[in-house]
Amino acid sequence: MSNQPGSNQIQLITYVDRLSGGGVLELHQLLQQELSGLFDGVHLLPFYTPIDGEDAGFDPTDHTAVDSRLGNWQDIASLARDYPVMADMIVNHVSAQSAQFQDVLAKGEASPYWPLFLTRDKVFGATPSSAELAAIYRPRPTSCFTELTLADGRSLPFWTTFTANQIDIDVQSEPGQAYLDAILHRFTENGVKLIRLDAAGYAIKKAGTSCFMLPETFEFIAGLSSKAKALGMQCLVEIHGYHQTQIDIARRCDWVYDFALPPLVLHTLFSRDAKALKHWLDIAPRNCITVLDTHDGIGIVDAADHQGQPGLLSDPELDALVEQIHRNSGGSSKLATGNAANNVDLYQVNCSFYDALAQHDEHYLLARAIQLFCPGISQIYYGGLLAAENDVELLQRTQVGRDINRPYFTPEKVRQALQKPVVKALCQLIKLRRSLQAFDGHFSQSLTDGQYQLHWQHQGHSASLQIQLSDLSAELIWQHSGEAQHQQTLSSLLVD
Fold first, then answer.
1. What is the β-pairing status of strands 194-198 and 234-237?
2. Catalytic residue of the set 55, 238, 317, 355
3. CA 114 to CA 388: how far, in whole Å?
4. Are residues 231 and 319 in the same domain?
5. How confident is the model over 420-458, as pLDDT tens digits?
6. Is position 238 annotated as part of the catalytic site?
7. Helices 261-271 and 361-373: crossing angle, nearest 10°?
8. Is 57 among the domain residues?
9. Number of structural domains in the chain
10. Which residue in 198, 258, 355, 403 is the catalytic one?
């Protein structure tokens, strides 16, 4: 197994505790036993102190410490010796409960950490214009500033792009750079090979701009990627936004997410029309991580238009897509999306991908087959691997919209899920995908007479997924160099 991620690989993305029912050691055992032979690498969602803050670990008080409930850095290093590990680098913010920010609240400008954090005034001055504030790009309906009171009684508007408990840092300041460098070094000391730059698009703020994906942001991402590369790591940039932006980012970094793929796959299956998907795969970056579901929702903005520029799907197509997801989920996704459940995301639908497809096993397996035949690293979310249904009970308990697709599994529940026909079929499909050398080669696609084909060719090896759009039946065709051709209907995996 390569210790560096390559394009012909399949990666698991998971919370440590929500899949394993325990810590890093238990997850390591799960990968080697029940999930043996499925994955080339693993993306560990935030495992820092604490894992149960307001944003499920994306608001760390200490980004350089493993939450003791999950284990320690030695456990991470041990896992990394067997599986290339990706870790999140939360570049935009830190918890308001962190020691650094608490020191700022206590001491104000006298704190050595004062330059680490952004206030509104640091960017705009004491009297920002309404036009400047209106120009800021907002991913969420809340204000991007939170008034917080210092020990001396002063109230200051701190920059909080996401939630009031996530205080934005000044990544251009000396303390900001030192903060990020400390995380990089802790990663490389413990074998992390791939870093996901979380919320990097919001990291640079500049008056008179949208404060999102500025030229300076590209420079920041490039600089951080260079530092990581010098330490033997690669960077994945996590940006939700217009598809052309993803193409631009891809030219400047190691990896980008293909967040446009999930809505396009759903649109293809709902409408029995693959034109939009084919167009995207004609122009999409090849250095991408493909996903269908993640710990966040199903992105909509990634396929939408932007400032008069056409999107991959039209507004009516996106509206129909969202409504179909709500119908397919029996309305449960509607409970977790928009202004429901204190949801903070304007640009995505919170729903498990299995429920988005009405728990239809054949359609779900086809969606996964399309993903596995797309160029890039295929990243499978733990809930998607186990065909998890919407966890309405967890949603009702936490009132956090995204928790509907962040279920907790016990070891027994994992074993039960692995016996479901659709999960057994998906595991077979993953193992077949990993066995085929054709995926090391050239990708092509065709769309004629209602048949959509994804094809790979490499030194006499070939692999194809052929889809009849009228009834969504599909066939797998593959050939190892010098051997006879194999054919199998996709649906037959469900009964094997």
1. parallel
2. 238
3. 44
4. yes
5. 999 999 999 999 999 999 999 999 999 999 999 999 999
6. yes
7. 130
8. yes
9. 3
10. 198
